[in-house]
Design a protein that fits this description.
The complex is a heterodimer of chains A (485) and B (419). Chain A is α+β, with helices and mostly antiparallel strands. Helix content of chain A is 34%, strand content 20%. Chain A is built from 16 helices and 20 strands. The chains are: A alpha+beta (485), B alpha+beta (419). Bound molecules: flavin-adenine dinucleotide (FAD).
């Protein structure tokens, strides 16, 4: 390295330290190792430095410094992204928001909360306990992921079928633009005059700027609900039940499916009582006012029976603290964790198909896995048609990595073929950029590039994410660790 | 081409005549028209059912109207997926008819639904009483195609209910007042028609009591889909032809679910309101339909030519409604959502109105909201500021406009900050 480069690197660290204090800067290789990737482990790269701002003013100063020095920066929450959204492509500064973690305000009467981006999703749920309200988006990673990350990726979760995804629950954001300007979109009230910038900003995957505050909607708790465990001999019978429930005009709060491999892994980990010999199970939740529950539950049970399944458990709940309720959802939401028992590494895909195409896509996944010699477990948001095939492999085996990528691509291509999408909630990140031209025309992508340039003209904020073209694209070396750092 | 009957009504709104009216009957034709006209530098004004042509700022250039009612195909309706893709010129009423045959509906309400098109409803972000429980237009849209100034079709979102690929153009186009392009096609989420529907109507004498009842409703054991507030003049208009009691204030709450749930909720709200609201009346199922429609149509009720719309925190709705002199204003609020609308029912002058609007707007802004004028004589628009107090994020809106419509081809002058 030339002296000039070394000098610049030293100055960057010095100035960052001056902004946030030495306790909020990481520069040593072993300290930074956790930050070389997120939940998407197939690509890795070390950022040059990791900083932890504790205020909006810190963020402003950091991005201004990066701008002056021409250094790329990437925002990061908890790093649970499954699409490589936080990968520090080209190194640079990683801005980690986990120390901006205050719940600033909770207003029950006006049904909103104001939070900093590093607030972990479940902290808000906990803070709201007993108020009769909750924050609806509940990604399975909710005990770790941050609301800033949820906003960036427009996260979903098991309860989106009835309640919608993150964007449906965000009223406004404060964002530090890449040039250091602080903007506020939306606000405490609905329907502010102007474009729905909040709707545009949610799901930007960190390519517009750094979210430093979020105003979220609070949702009235249902009076109660019923959570059913329905057991089937085959995946086909379970997917047909999903279609049957939707076609019958019932909108469950959640409609989740697990296949046999997944059931076995979860049962081994949590001993909930899942039938390990079943071909598939559905977790079907209906909620609302108690007086209406019996009717919906009976209708669901009838459809389950008509497809040859049986309702193994029916959990009546009112507080969501009932032990069986807690247990079934803990099992479901920890499914990815349980995978560790099956395989050292996994890669989760996030395709979406029209709900009626679920039987087809699951058969297709099965066939692809067999052809490539890759084991695949399935646990997913069936009611939304949002599949999560989990491809099991050993990242130390280059051939397996290659086959996993091939299999993944075939699955995602098939989602597009049947009219769906390559990502329902995890985002494009670095992982799925090459699919964008398959989903969108050059004109569509040009419009998106124009929007990104509006917010992020220099492209320094999270370069090489989401859009495969435009100024903000750096050369990536593909799978594996990028630099021998 | 069709619609010959109302050529006489060809207008850009605000008394402006179009240079010409194009009536494309396919998206390809729309692209061709836009290409030809945009090359000449002619501004373009997308139009749907022409129910809201005067809405917004005064266009700052003359141009060609794009009558999109010829784009009226249902493109794809996979009922079992609970989604529908339609062209922008489909009217709300005809769409609901198509959906009703499958036992489904779109959770969007708009006045004059036989004329209002989905493109127009989305451009203007129109909503009705069910928004409280069912969400706004932004919550129902999953895909959009629009034609930009280059005559290209730009697509965002898709046809599946969950999709985070790319930026959320469907949200950006929602409420964009036709200033980013001509919305050509939309994909929307639909829902099963519930088994039962009911509206409970209760009158209340004092506004303090209204406020207390609204506070209590926030944590009611019931789960209303609509929470509406009317002053007496408004309640008389809304209940015209219906046999309902009147008082200084009327609260209306709506419930929709299976029959057992709705029956329980109706009984329960009556208990919660016992002794606090009087003259309770309940309209159920088919009997509730005219009242649902009247509550929706109130937005377009036209006693005069001035209407104001405040967006507030819900807790401020009652007090704000009470600021409006009942002898002059008909007030109807989506109170659960903090949206207060009022129509001026008497003749006035700009000199009288301007300070009143200013005072009301200051109140709304102090609460974190704003106050716009959905209806206002053209000559008064500038002075009254139809889009409300300027917001800091309008600068970003301007940049977004410049990114997608740099030549200011679409609806120039209509939207916030002169966009
Ligand atoms: C076990 C497991 C289960 C999961 N289940 C779900 C699920 O059910 N539903 C679902 O939607 N996702 C799920 N995910 C994916 C992931 O949890 C979500 O994408 C989550 O929103 C990421 O939050 P995070 O705080 O970890 O963000 P990170 O992973 O740190 O970042 C994600 C993206 O957001 C950007 N970003 C983060 N913070 C900010 C900020 N303040 N400002 C601007 N940009 C920012 C990053 O640059 C990156 O592009 C799961 C992941 C795991 C590991």
């Amino acid at each position: 390295m030339s002296t000039a480069v070394v000098n610049a690197a030293v100055r960057l660290v010095d100035e960052l330290t001056a902004i946030v204090g030495v306790e909020n800067v990481l520069t040593e290789r072993d300290e930074k190792l956790v930050y070389e990737c997120d939940g998407y482990v197939i690509e890795k790269n070390l950022p040059d430095v990791v900083v932890f701002p504790t205020s909006t003013a810190d963020v402003v100063a950091i991005v201004k410094l990066c701008g002056r020095m021409g250094v790329p920066f990437v925002p990061r929450g908890a790093g649970t992204s499954l699409a490589g959204g936080t990968l520090a492509v080209g190194g640079g500064v990683m801005i980690c928001l986990t120390r901006m973690k205050r719940i600033v305000e909770i207003n029950i009467r006006d049904r909103y909360a104001v939070v900093e981006p590093g607030v972990v999703n479940v902290w808000l749920t906990r803070a709201l306990a007993g108020t009769g309200f909750h924050y609806a988006p509940d990604p399975s990673s909710q005990t770790a992921c941050t609301i800033g990350g949820n906003v960036a990726t427009n996260s979903g979760g098991p309860h989106t079928l009835k309640y919608g995804v993150t964007v449906n629950h965000v009223r406004g954001v404060e964002m530090v633009m890449p040039d250091g300007a602080v903007i506020e979109t939306g606000g405490l009230c609905e329907d502010d005059p102007g474009y729905d910038l909040t709707g545009l900003v949610v799901g930007n995957e960190g390519t517009f700027g750094i979210t430093t505050k979020v105003i979220v909607n609070l949702t009235r708790d249902p009076e109660g609900g019923r959570t059913l465990l329905a057991v089937f001999d085959s995946v086909d019978a379970a997917t047909e039940t999903v279609s049957g429930i939707i076609a019958a005009g019932i909108v469950p709060a959640a409609l989740e499916m697990l296949d046999q491999l997944m059931i076995q892994a979860i049962e081994a980990a949590f001993h909930f009582g899942f039938p390990v010999d079943a071909g598939a199970v559905l977790i079907i939740e209906v909620d609302g006012v108690d007086a209406g529950m019996e009717k919906d539950t009976a209708a669901v049970a009838e459809i389950v029976a008509s497809k040859g399944g049986s309702v193994r458990k029916s959990i009546a709940w009112y507080t969501r603290k009932e032990p069986e309720y807690v247990a079934i959802w803990k099992s479901r939401k920890s499914a990815f964790g349980a995978i560790g028992r099956l395989s050292p590494t996994f890669c989760t895909q996030d395709g979406v198909v029209p709900r009626t195409k679920l039987p087809h896509i699951l058969r297709f996944i099965n066939e692809v896995g067999r052809r490539h010699g890759i084991r695949v477990a399935n646990v997913f948001h069936a009611g939304d048609g949002n599949i999560h095939p989990i491809l099991l492999f050993d990242e130390r085996d280059a051939d397996q990595v290659k086959r996993v990528l091939l299999a993944s691509h075939e699955i995602l291509d098939e989602c597009i073929n049947v009219g769906g999408s390559v990502t329902g909630e995890h985002g494009i990140g670095v992982e799925k950029m090459e699919f964008m031209p398959k989903l969108f025309s050059p004109e569509d992508l040009a419009a998106m590039v124009a929007l990104r340039t509006t917010f992020n003209p220099t492209g320094l904020c999270s370069p090489s994410k989401m859009l495969p073209s435009g100024a903000a694209c750096l050369e990536r070396k593909g799978p594996g660790r990028h630099s021998p750092a | 081409m069709n619609h010959a009957a109302d050529h006489a009504a060809d207008t850009l709104g605000d008394g402006l005549s179009p240079l010409a009216v194009a009536r494309p009957e396919s998206i390809e034709q729309l692209c061709d028209v836009v290409k030809t006209r945009a090359v000449e530098g002619t501004p373009l004004f997308p139009q749907g059912g022409r129910t809201s042509l005067d809405y917004g700022g005064i266009p700052d250039a003359a141009g060609v109207a794009l009558d999109l009612r010829g784009l009226a195909r249902v493109v794809d309706y996979p009922a079992a997926d609970m989604t529908i893709t339609v062209e922008a010129g489909v009217t709300l009423a005809s769409l609901q008819d198509v959906l009703a045959r499958e036992g489904q509906r779109l959770l969007i309400e708009a006045p004059r639904d036989a004329e209002a098109t989905l493109g127009g409803i989305y451009a203007t972000n129109t909503s009705g009483p069910r928004r409280f429980g069912a969400g706004r237009p932004r919550d129902q849209i999953i895909g959009v195609s629009f034609v930009n100034a280059a005559g290209e079709v730009i697509k965002g979102g898709g046809r599946v209910v969950k999709n985070v690929a790319g930026y959320d153009l469907p949200k950006l186009l929602t409420g964009s007042m036709g200033t980013l392009g001509a919305i050509a096609q939309l994909t929307l989420k639909v829902r099963p028609v519930p088994e039962a529907s009911a509206l409970v109507w209760g009158t209340v004498a004092a506004i303090e009591q209204v406020a207390a009842l609204l506070d209590a409703l926030n944590t009611s054991a019931t789960r209303p889909i609509a929470v509406e507030l009317l002053n007496e003049q408004a309640s008389r208009r809304v209940a015209d032809g219906l046999d309902l009691p009147h008082g200084a204030w009327t609260l209306v709450v709506g419930f929709e679910d299976n029959a057992k749930s709705v029956a329980w909720q109706v009984a329960r709200i009556k208990e919660e309101w016992a002794g606090r609201a009087s003259a309770l009346a309940t309209l159920e199922n088919a009997a509730s339909t005219p009242l649902w429609a009247a509550l929706t149509n109130f937005a377009d009720a036209a006693p005069g030519d001035v209407s104001i719309l405040a967006n507030l925190r819900p807790s401020a709705a009652a007090a704000f409604a009470a600021l409006l002199d009942a002898s002059r204003w008909e007030v109807g609020a989506h109170a659960g959502s903090g949206i207060v609308r009022a129509h001026l029912a008497v003749a006035t002058t700009l000199e009288v109105l301007a300070p009143e609007v200013e005072t009301l707007r200051a109140r709304a802004v102090a609460d974190g909201g704003n106050l716009t004028l959905p209806r206002c004589p053209t000559a008064w628009k500038k002075r009254l500021g139809v889009w409300g107090a300027p917001r800091a994020d309008w600068e970003i809106c301007r940049r977004v406009k410049a990114a997608l419509d740099p030549g200011r081809v679409f609806n120039p002058g209509r939207f916030v900050g002169g966009i």
